[in-house]
Design a protein that fits this description.
342 residues, alpha/beta, TIM Barrel, eight-stranded parallel β-barrel, two-stranded antiparallel ribbon, 12 helices
């Protein structure tokens, strides 16, 4: 989730359901088939990417994985703030109890037949001082990759969420190869997700240079129009924080910039022969539910029309599709996310 970033539901029959695809075997990976198998996903945000799980009001529970699977999702993306659970000096040892917690998360996903995307999230120091912290991030990925090298092909790695600040342009492009090398030492063919700088913004794709690795999946994030999706969000700029009552109707005028952005991503992906994973999109709870559902449905239709897999931000917090108090999905959002859901 880009906390500091500036950046309709139609009839259910208009949006086909996605098959419950399974990733190919790891010995003969097909990254396009793997991305297709990721299908429709849910971010388990505001839990493990907090400074400490629970600090932001959410702790993961085993039942959440079944709830997500039963609703029709195929994938969970798990943001993780590894940087606060590892030593600051080489070899940057990750706390074993925290590793065991991540083991549990992977076990829950596998038990519920969910693909899982494991990322590095909110490594703020890396964004501010990339030269200083790149060796540490490499060391983290060496440990993560080694620990999970024998996990099934349904486990996908994502190198870093939303690089920004000073980790942009050549700095980010230069960081990708050594990070990928750290993974490839123990996971030579595992799918790895990488996105552009500037908060994984689609507009920044022209700045992204990926290594010659056949098992990479491109990720982009989308929260436009930001004034709508982040109205009233307490971490947004003062201007956006004070906004309220902004609606989204799904008019041609509103849809035009979404389609243009997604076309840009699709064209870049085709030119570079990469599948696309829309890793984050969502509208904060201060927007009215009807508008949130219309916007969400539109994003999904446009993404799936271009063959993108996706993961909604997020499960059960400020952008949440699930109401933990009521122990039920927000019905308009669920029907937008999984159009044939009852």
């Amino acid at each position: 989730m880009r906390y500091l970033s500036p950046i309709v539901v139609f009839a259910a029959s208009l949006v086909p359901t996605l098959p419950a695809a399974q990733p190919p075997k790891a010995d003969k990976p097909d990254v396009f088939a793997i991305n297709k198998a990721l299908g429709r996903g849910m971010n388990l945000g505001n839990a493990l990417e907090a400074p400490k799980e629970g600090d932001w009001g959410l702790k993961l529970e085993a039942g959440y994985f079944k709830i997500i699977k039963d609703a029709g999702f195929q994938t969970v993306r798990v943001p993780v703030k590894w940087s606060v659970h590892a030593a600051k000096d080489a070899p940057y040892i990750v706390d074993d109890d925290f590793f065991k917690r991540i083991d549990w998360v992977l076990d829950q996903a596998e038990a519920n037949k969910l693909n899982i995307i494991l990322n590095c999230h909110h490594y703020d120091e890396m964004d501010k001082e990339p030269d200083k912290h790149l060796p540490r991030l490499i060391g983290l990925w060496e440990q993560i990759a080694k620990r999970y090298k024998d996990r099934p092909a349904s486990v996908v790695f994502e190198l870093l969420n939303e690089p920004h600040d000073k980790l942009i342009d050549d700095k980010w492009n230069a960081a990708i190869p050594p990070l990928l090398k750290a993974v490839r030492a123990t996971n030579p063919t595992r799918p790895v997700i990488v996105g552009p700088p500037f908060w994984n913004g689609i507009w920044a794709l022209l700045k992204l240079k990926l290594p010659d690795d056949p098992n990479l999946i491109l990720t982009v994030h989308f929260y436009d129009p930001f004034e709508f999706t982040h109205q009233g969000a307490p971490w947004a700029s003062e201007k956006v924080r004070k906004l309220s009552g902004i609606k989204w109707e799904g008019t041609d005028t509103e849809l035009k910039p979404i389609r243009a952005s997604f076309d840009q991503a699709a064209e870049w992906a085709k030119k570079n022969n990469r599948p696309v994973f829309l890793g984050e999109f969502g509208a904060f709870e201060k927007a009215d539910m009807t508008s949130r559902a219309k916007w969400t449905g539109a994003i999904i239709r446009e993404a799936e029309a271009r063959g993108f897999s996706w993961a909604y931000w997020e499960f059960a917090s400020g952008f949440g599709a699930y109401n933990r108090d009521a122990k039920a999905w927000h019905d308009p959002l669920l029907k937008a996310l999984i159009p044939l859901s009852k």
